[in-house]
Amino acid sequence: MDTQPADPGPALDPAWTTRAVRVALDEDLGPAPGRDVTTQATVDPGESGVAHLVARADGVLAGLPVVAEVLGQVAGRLGLPVPEVEVRVDDGARVARGDVLAVLRGPVQVLLVGERTLLNLTSRASGVATHTRRWADALAGTGAQVLDTRKTTPGLRELEKYAVRCGGGTNKRMGLYDVAMVKDNHVVAAGSVAGAVEAVRRRFPDVAVQVEADTLEQAVEALDVGADFLLLDNMPTALLREVVRVVRARDGGDRVELEATGNLTLDRAAEVAATGVDFLSVGALTHSSPILDLALDLVERQV
């Protein structure tokens, strides 16, 4: 097992984690404190045990911080001691089928009530990290990086973007509030690329401005009005190469970041990176990643 993790950068926001887990538990147990009619009927609240969080497939791990949060909230709802969580593998590490990722010790009721919620969240995050790692590996040595998008599961953006970082990818923007992105509908509304960029600069001078371009002419127009970042959308490889050449000749050393986006596949990744773009943005990292199969196995009981 390779446990040397990718650097996930900023940790999960604890406040977000608390809110997300509370909502997930309400969904599974009903409004707080909720109930698990099967576990609470069949397991004595005084029974303790040990469970292993196990990988059932090869991949990249992400989302382990949610495990302790889930168990802590379940314990609080049931009025039982909080289980101990012994983490064996760091987020961002590659794991193999059969690896024990964490050992959980505490009341069996808490372990079983929290099982599905902690698996849903960690399996989802690890699936995103695993998919992202494939892209990061395909781009290794090219100088280009893989970016995520806002095509995330509602309510899980913080987790999914964290998972992208665990997989060796880079976050683009977190939402509509931190970076301006001028797309075709904004250009129509403002009357031109220049009009849209100037309107953003007047209203929100503190944010970076990105502009989507479908043609060389649009890219040049955006560059000339001071865009910080160009999204080169659905361009064939030859056109991407030409746009990069023209932009680099015109930006005067004040390097504008360039991103290829739309219609990207793993088998084209190195080819697109070779055009000289800085980033490839891939919505599928978060909207189409399958989960990584993880399981919680109860391995010891103490009545």
From TrEMBL:
<dbReference type="InterPro" id="IPR013785">
    <property type="entry name" value="Aldolase_TIM"/>
</dbReference>
<feature type="domain" description="Quinolinate phosphoribosyl transferase C-terminal">
    <location>
        <begin position="128"/>
        <end position="297"/>
    </location>
</feature>
<dbReference type="InterPro" id="IPR036068">
    <property type="entry name" value="Nicotinate_pribotase-like_C"/>
</dbReference>
<dbReference type="Pfam" id="PF01729">
    <property type="entry name" value="QRPTase_C"/>
</dbReference>
<dbReference type="Pfam" id="PF02749">
    <property type="entry name" value="QRPTase_N"/>
</dbReference>
<dbReference type="InterPro" id="IPR027277">
    <property type="entry name" value="NadC/ModD"/>
</dbReference>
<dbReference type="GO" id="GO:0004514">
    <property type="term" value="F:nicotinate-nucleotide diphosphorylase (carboxylating) activity"/>
</dbReference>
<dbReference type="InterPro" id="IPR037128">
    <property type="entry name" value="Quinolinate_PRibosylTase_N_sf"/>
</dbReference>
<dbReference type="InterPro" id="IPR002638">
    <property type="entry name" value="Quinolinate_PRibosylTrfase_C"/>
</dbReference>
<feature type="domain" description="Quinolinate phosphoribosyl transferase N-terminal">
    <location>
        <begin position="36"/>
        <end position="126"/>
    </location>
</feature>
<dbReference type="GO" id="GO:0009435">
    <property type="term" value="P:NAD+ biosynthetic process"/>
</dbReference>
<protein>
    <recommendedName>
        <fullName>Nicotinate-nucleotide pyrophosphorylase [carboxylating]</fullName>
        <ecNumber>2.4.2.19</ecNumber>
    </recommendedName>
</protein>
<comment type="function">
    <text>Involved in the catabolism of quinolinic acid (QA).</text>
</comment>
<keyword id="KW-0328">Glycosyltransferase</keyword>
<dbReference type="GO" id="GO:0034213">
    <property type="term" value="P:quinolinate catabolic process"/>
</dbReference>
<keyword id="KW-0808">Transferase</keyword>
<keyword id="KW-0662">Pyridine nucleotide biosynthesis</keyword>
<dbReference type="InterPro" id="IPR022412">
    <property type="entry name" value="Quinolinate_PRibosylTrfase_N"/>
</dbReference>
<dbReference type="InterPro" id="IPR004393">
    <property type="entry name" value="NadC"/>
</dbReference>
<comment type="pathway">
    <text>Cofactor biosynthesis; NAD(+) biosynthesis; nicotinate D-ribonucleotide from quinolinate: step 1/1.</text>
</comment>
<comment type="similarity">
    <text>Belongs to the NadC/ModD family.</text>
</comment>
<dbReference type="GO" id="GO:0005737">
    <property type="term" value="C:cytoplasm"/>
</dbReference>
